[in-house]
Amino acid sequence: MSGKPKLHYVNARGRMEPIRWLLAAAGVEFEESFLETKDDLKKLQTDGSLLFQQVPMVEIDGMKMVQTRAVLNYVAGKYNLYGKDLKERALIDMYVEGIIDLNELILSNIFQPADKKEEHFATVVDKATKRYFPVYEKVLKDHGQDFLVGNKLSRADVQLLETILMAEECKPDMLAKFPLLQSFKARISNIPNIKKFLQPGSQRKPPIQEKDIPRLMQIF
């Protein structure tokens, strides 16, 4: 055992990607074991590795952790990315829950039937620009600091940057009306650990493409 966290998931973004981002932001090296076939998933299910019979699963500190939010909470707490007190943690949790909602809306776009894609994409843009990004723009304005909570990097900053970049992959001018978020994106992207993760060749995964869907559906 190397002592590095080991991530069990498909070789794609999905629900594991925020965990990859958070570990990378914390400067933690991790290994990945990719599920290539349905049998790979069944093996984890039958050997007792998956508490609820589903991935993602992360081996860390002698545990086999499942449930994405639980893993993210643990990583954030372990690596001091979860605020200095309960009040800051509550703010981080609120901001993160909104980010997750938007993240999953964006992720689901590729899986929409052809006749629903345009309508779903319009919903993504509408909610991103009218419900979610205005909140974070206001938080940054009211807080007056470089980060969403306190004055140090937290999981909320990392997960917001991830989702901003995903949104811009869908629509490059998504932040056109949000100058503080534009500055936030540039600032957080230049934090050394995050800048490294954004470079080609890192363990960050590319967007899921139409051609990837049959392969992923065969595993799950």
Could you list some keywords that capture this structure?
220 residues, alpha+beta, Glutaredoxin, 2 domains, 4-stranded mixed beta sheet, 9 helices
Write the layout of secondary structure elements.
Layout: E1 6-9, H1 17-25, E2 31-34, H2 38-46, E3 57-60, E4 63-66, H3 68-78, H4 86-107, H5 117-143, H6 155-170, H7 179-189, H8 192-197, H9 213-219
Parallel strand pairs: 1-2
Antiparallel strand pairs: 1-3, 3-4
What does it look like?
The chain has helices at residues 17-25, 38-46, 68-78, 86-107, 117-143, 155-170, 179-189, 192-197, 213-219; strands spanning 6-9, 31-34, 57-60, 63-66. The mean pLDDT is 95. Helices cover 54% and strands 7% of the residues. α4 runs antiparallel to α5 (117-143). Strands 2-1-3-4 form a 4-stranded mixed sheet, with helices on one face. The two termini are 28 Å apart. It is globular and about 50 Å long. It has 2 domains: 6-79 and 198-219, Glutaredoxin (3-Layer(aba) Sandwich); 86-190, Glutathione S-transferase Yfyf (Class Pi), Chain A, domain 2 (Up-down Bundle). The longest helix has 27 residues, at 117-143. It contains 9 helices and 4 strands; from the N terminus they run βαβαββααααααα. With 220 residues, it is of the alpha+beta class.
Counting DSSP H or I runs of 4 or more residues, the number of helices is: 9
pLDDT under 50 segments (min length 5)?
Answer: none
Q: State the major sheet.
A: 4 strands, mixed
Order of strands across the main sheet: 2-1-3-4
Distance between the amino and carboxyl termini: 28 Å
Q: Provide mean pLDDT, rounded.
A: 95
Helix/strand/pairing class, anyone? Answer: alpha+beta
- The third-level CATH topology of the largest domain is Glutathione S-transferase Yfyf (Class Pi), Chain A, domain 2
Number of domains: 2
